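Budget justification aside, the reviewers requested a transparent look at the raw inputs and outputs of the sequence design task funded under Objective 1. We therefore reproduce one unedited record. The lines immediately below are the structure tokens for a 332-residue chain.
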């Protein structure tokens, strides 16, 4: 699997109707596999949506090089409130509706952003690939504006926060482990993961570095060096200037309008291509949360991979990418 080549992509600011200037990172597929004949299936644009404390950068570290090389055009926006997309002076909280409106405008602008692609690609609808809290923005987009089901060709949720939000998961963690529940609470609510490297590793990257019992040599750092952790913490600090308004979100969780045992109210309108993926070593989103998301999107069985929460980073990024590869090959 690729990931070591230097990807060809650029960063730009996209002016939204709201007056917000959104940072997006864009890469045009140009690998050998993109040299297709007229009978070859067209490849959809992959829209990668990040979660809390992250930015579009998290997809560029590993995934962009791989999918550009596979011939896919890729784009990763930075949500309002991150370092790349300024939310406004003194703004500390961003409402979920604002993410929805920003995503709407971005999807509407995709044709102009991808103007360097061939005209044959103009009618290829994008696949939305969301991680963690990014999943809720997709749920709310399709709930509030179900017509967008017709404007996308696929949906992938990776370690997505479920329709009921974090509340029920937090209670489950509390019953299982006071320590784990405490780490999640202080890590996010008090932003301790921005400065505590051990906590940061636990939440996102698979836990502490494993060292040899005798010589103290590093046996496994999960593909994330100490230097990487410090770099990511700098990014997290920059990208958590304004965080999601949880009180506002609690009033309009997607789970409040589910039908038929947890399905979305628009499940009959969803694109055929759908995948829900969880991580077996996820410290933040548990198995029940992944299964709840699968029910919401009417997916019979979610996929699980060996990975921590940040499935796109570290040494195990290929596991999630492999599942996504299979999904894309099967459906497109």
């Amino acid at each position: 699997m690729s990931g070591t080549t230097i990807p060809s992509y650029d960063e730009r600011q996209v002016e939204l109707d709201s007056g917000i200037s959104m940072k997006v990172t864009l890469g045009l597929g140009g690998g050998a596999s993109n040299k297709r004949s007229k009978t070859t299936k067209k490849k959809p644009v992959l829209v990668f949506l990040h979660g809390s404390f992250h930015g579009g950068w998290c997809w560029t570290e590993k995934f962009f090089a791989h999918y550009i090389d596979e011939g896919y055009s890729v784009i990763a926006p930075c949500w309002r409130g991150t370092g790349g997309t300024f939310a406004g002076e003194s703004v500390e909280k961003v409402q979920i509706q604002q993410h929805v409106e920003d995503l709407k405008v971005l999807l509407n602008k995709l044709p102009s952003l991808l103007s360097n692609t061939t005209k044959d690609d103009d009618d290829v609808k994008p696949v939305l690939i969301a991680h963690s809290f990014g999943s809720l923005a997709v749920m709310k987009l399709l709930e509030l504006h179900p017509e967008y089901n017709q404007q996308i060709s696929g949906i992938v949720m990776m370690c997505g926060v479920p329709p009921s939000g974090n509340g029920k998961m937090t209670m489950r963690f509390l019953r299982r482990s006071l320590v784990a529940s405490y780490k999640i609470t202080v890590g996010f609510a008090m932003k301790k993961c921005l400065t505590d490297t051990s906590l940061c590793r636990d939440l996102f990257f698979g836990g502490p570095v494993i060292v040899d019992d005798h010589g103290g040599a590093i046996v496994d750092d999960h593909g994330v060096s100490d230097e990487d952790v410090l770099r990511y913490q700098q990014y997290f600090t920059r990208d958590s200037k304004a965080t999601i308004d949880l009180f506002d979100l609690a009033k309009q969780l997607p789970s409040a309008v589910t039908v038929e045992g947890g399905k979305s109210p628009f499940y009959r309108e969803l694109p055929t291509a759908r995948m829900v993926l969880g991580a077996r070593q996820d410290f933040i989103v548990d198995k029940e949360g992944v299964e709840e998301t699968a029910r919401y999107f009417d997916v019979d069985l979610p996929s699980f991979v060996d990975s921590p929460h940040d499935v796109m980073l570290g040494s195990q990024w290929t596991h999630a990418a492999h599942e996504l590869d299979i999904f894309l090959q099967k459906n497109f």
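Confidence is low (pLDDT under 50) at residues 31-39, 117-121. The CA atoms of residues 81 and 88 lie 8 Å apart. Computational costs for records of this kind are itemized in the attached budget.
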